[in-house]
Amino acid sequence: MAAEATLPAEFAEETGAGFRHTRYALGRIAIYTALVFWAFISLFPVYWTITTSMKVAKDVQLGHLVPFVDFQPNWLGWRSLGLSPDTLGNVSTVRDEFMQRFLNSVTTAVGASILAVLIGALAAYGLSRFQYKFLWMRNKDISFFFLSQLILPPVVLALPFLVLYRELALLDTSLGLTLLYTLTVLPIVIWIMKDQFDTIPTELDEAAQVDGLGSWGTFFRIILPMALPGMVAAFILSLILCWNEYFFAALLTSTNAKTLPVMVASQTGSQGINWWSMAALSTAAIAPLVVVGIFLERYIIKGLTAGAVK
Amino acid sequence: MPQAEPLLGERFIEIGDPGAAARRRAGIALIWLASIGLGMVILLQALDATGLLPLGLRDWRPTLYAYVLWAVALGYGMVLIRGEAGRRALFILPAALFTVAMAIFPTLFGLSIAFTDWNLASFAGQRFNGFDNLVQLFRDPFYWNALANMVYYVLMVLVEYAIAFGLALLLNAEIRARKFWRVTFLIPLMLSPVAVSWMVGKSMMEYRFGPASRFARWLGWDTPTFFSDPWIAKLSIEAMDAWVSIPFMMILLLAGLQALPKEVQEAAKVDGASAWQSFWKITFPLMLPVSITAIVLRIIFKLKLADIVINVTSGGPGGATDTVSSFIYREYRDRSNVGYGTMLAMFYLVLIVVFITLLLNFVSKRMQRMT
What is A93-304's CATH number, 1.10.3720.10, 1.10.287.370, 3.30.70.141, 2.40.110.10? Predict the structure, then answer.
C-alpha cells in the first residue's frame, strides 16, 4: 500500500494506474467499513449489557450510552448481587445464591467436559487405529453411530430422562446433569479427536510397539501427549456448550443443581425487570466465556474446523 | 461386544501360550457371572417396584451401580478372552456403553412412554392408551404450527450462510489486525442463548428504552414492537439466533477459504477475470464441500432451537415463533403430560432423521454429479 501511495501522480495518470489506485483505495475503505460495522454488531449488545449494569433507572430511561460522558457509573446493579466493592465484604444471600449457581455451572461443565474428552479420546483413538467388527458394524458404522447422536434433539431425551432420573434419584443433582452433558458433547469430542489422531502418523505407534509398549502404553505415553492441542480444543468447545446449556438444566433441576443460565432465565420472568441487576447478572454469566473466547480463540477455531477442511 | 480383529501373528502367540486357554475360560466365566448378576439385580428391582417382593429400595440406583460393575467386568473379561484384541476393544467400549445407556436406552424407554397417558402431577400413574397420543398429535394445530415454523427457521440458515460467507471473505481479505477482527466476530458464539435473550430480546429490543427500539424510531418506525406482529417476531427471534451462530459458519468457511489453492485464483487474475467472476466461477464452486458441511451442521443445530424462544416470547404471539422444542417444553411445563410430550418429541425425531437422511443423500448425489 505504502509503495503505491508514493508513486508520482503524473506517472500514475499516464499509465492509468491512478484509476486502479482509486479503485483500490475505495475497496480498502469498503472492507474496513464492513469490518467496523460487523464489529459494532458483534460487540454492541455486550457493551450495552456491561454499561447497563452500572446505570440507575434514570440513565436507562433516557437511553444514555457512554459512561462518564452521558452518565455517572453506579454500582447499583452489582450491589443488588452483592458483588459491588462496598458489599463484597458483607454477608449477602443473593451473592451466596449466585455463587452456588456459578459453582454448579463450573462443576457440571468442567466435569462433563473432562469425562467426554476422556472417553471420547479413547474411542477416537481406537477408531483411528484399529479395525473393529461388531455384528455388522465396521469402523465406519461405529463412527457414524457416535456422530449420529448429534442429530438427537434434547426434547427427545428430556422427558424420558425426567422419569428415569426421578427413579434413579438423580433429578436435581449435578451428577445427573453432568452425565447428560457428557452425552451431548461426546459426538463433537469424538469428531475432533479422531481428526487429531488421523494427523499423527501411525509409524509412531509402530515404533512404540516395537519398543515393547502395548496399545494402551502407546496411547498414553506417545500419542496422547501429541494430541494435546486437539484435546484442549475439544475440552474448550465442550466447556462452552455445557456452560451455555439451558434446556436440560431447566427441566431437570429445581433447587440444588440449578445452573447459571437457569438462574438468569428465572430472573427475566419475574415482574418488573430490574435492568441494572439483570445486566449485572448477565455480565457475570457471560464474562468467563468471553475471557475464554479472547484468550483461547486459537483452540476454539481448531475445534470448530476439525475435519471440515481436508 | 466390539472386538478387534487380531493380526495373524498375534493369534499364533495367543495359541502358543499355555495359560491362554485358562484365561479364556476365566474371562467367559467372568462375563457370564456379571451378566447373571446384573440380570438378578434388575429382576429384584422390578419385583420390588411392582410390590411383589418388598425390599424397601428407595430408587433404582442399585441397577445403575450394577450396570457400571457389569461394564467393568465385561471389559476385563474381554481382555482375558482375547488378549491384545480385547485390550484394543477397550478403547471404544466406554464410549459405546455410555452412549447405549444414555441415548439408546432412554430413547427406547421414551418410545414406551409415548404410547401412554401419563401425568406426572396426578396420582393416576402411567396408563397405556395405544395410538391416542398419535391421533391427538395429528389434530394438534399448535404442533403443526411449530413444525411449519421449523421450516422457516431452517430456510433462514441460507441467509445466515450468505452473511457468514461475506464475513469469511472479509476476514480472508488483505487486512490488518486480522486476529483482532476474528476474535471480535467470534464473541457472540461464546454467549449463552439465555443471556442473549435478555441482553438483546428483553433489553435492547424493549419497547420504551431499548437502544434497538430507539434506533428503529429514529429510522421512522413509530411503534417498534419487535414481538407483537407474527412476522416481525419471527424475524427478531431469527436475528438473535443468527447473531449467536453466524460466527460458527463463518469460522468453517474462513478455514475453507484459507485452504484454497492460491495458484488457481492468481491464474484467474492473470487471465483478466474480475473479482466478481473469479468468485462465482472459482471460489464459490471450490468452497461447495465446506459450504455444505457448514450448512448441514448448522441445520442440525437449528433443529434444536429452543432457549431463545422459551425466554423471549414463550412461542408467542399466537405461536408465531414457536419451535417444536419450545412447544413441547411448554406442553410439559403447563400440563406435565409426559406421555403426550414424548410422543410429540418422538414424532419430531422421526421427521428429523428422515429429513437429514434425504438431505445428505441429495447433497452427496449432487456432489458426485459435479465432480
Answer: 1.10.3720.10
